[in-house]
């Protein structure tokens, strides 16, 4: 047994001093005296020296291993300008002259004009082999002329449903491909091997446990793909350091093909891995790409509200069949029109298939019409929010969100409203969109809705002051509510007898820390299934 004592433990029943672990489970919480009385000879004692103990953090939406693997190629996440991106690409090409294809990830839309990055810039670096670079938000691709040629795209190629091929004034391809159009380019990139994904999972989970995570929801895994195979092998070999729940990906352009895969799937809860319980559905794109679906026009494009990835009838039928197969649905939802599509789809599902205990999750929820709040509550649609984004980010808010959305920009990410209406609200990083997925930083941003370096008392710096949440709400979002939206709250998410010993020990007491200093706190220790997987002075 393991005994944590002399601490400030944030248990299900309030604060206590000590906690007893037997194997991978919590046996009891209580006072030092109560827990010592239950201990036996040879047990391991850990003196917390007054430190705060929280349930292990849960990231309810992160593309970890996939992003980790892509960053092992051309990694643009540290760059901010077009010139910096091109320098990184050039350096990589020079360092790897024998590669037949170059791929990478991490560029951001604010570094470019509305059309996005151009192919000619990449051609000047490499014109004889394809270069395909995914944006940091995962919704656009920047490609050179060779890649465009290999994909069979010409100036006459029409935009695919739900996608945009950016074009110059003369109609020629510009070099940027949005949403479903990017899939044409991404199809050229060979799938990473199982071994490459094994390495990526190792690197990702080492990073996440250092931030106190003990569970992650990966919302984009192909049923029979190499990433799924890598997860299974890691689990079978006992190499997973945290719990993972996986959602099978879907293809709006081929719903029946997606369903064929789901029919072969089966629910699996084995060790630290859960799969076969969720299907991920993209409803729209992103605001910065002009592909989020809105009820009213984009302010910079009269008559344009975004381009839906699904017709309502097709979405309804697809979701109903997914539901009949026993899966829950995890939606990517940015715009208020996309929210309405989800509501109508789930009303149809309920009408066709009847009531059951569903775990329907809408991720992101950037622009939400208050008129839809009651329906969200009625349908028990849970929210996977992204607190790391609840700020007026340089290059985004003034240059993109305000010009694109107008007054709607101030209403983005209404997290407090979700709590107030009684929805289950979890939190995710959407890693690698958020490069530092530390939950206490996310909680700070949700509490203050300003960047750490900004004056949180200056109302001009605050994004939607009415939507500030409390520390306790933030902790719920990153712990128990995350476990709920992952479908694993029966075994984790809170510190109570019978649940897994998924625990984070903090270096500082966040209840005594000023909100503007939460991002400076540190994780002292992370325990997953009763095993110490991270210690501040030496990673396990």
UniProtKB/TrEMBL annotation:
Region spans: Disordered: 153-175
Protein name: Amidohydrolase
Native source organism of the sequence: Candidatus Allocopromorpha excrementipullorum
Residue stretches of biased makeup (Basic and acidic residues): 164-175
Alphabetical list of InterPro entries matching this protein: Amidohydro_3, Metal-dep_hydrolase_composite, Metal_Hydrolase, YtcJ-like
TM regions (residue ranges): none
Domain Amidohydrolase: 45-534
Single GO molecular function: hydrolase activity, acting on carbon-nitrogen (but not peptide) bonds
Superkingdom classification of source: Bacteria
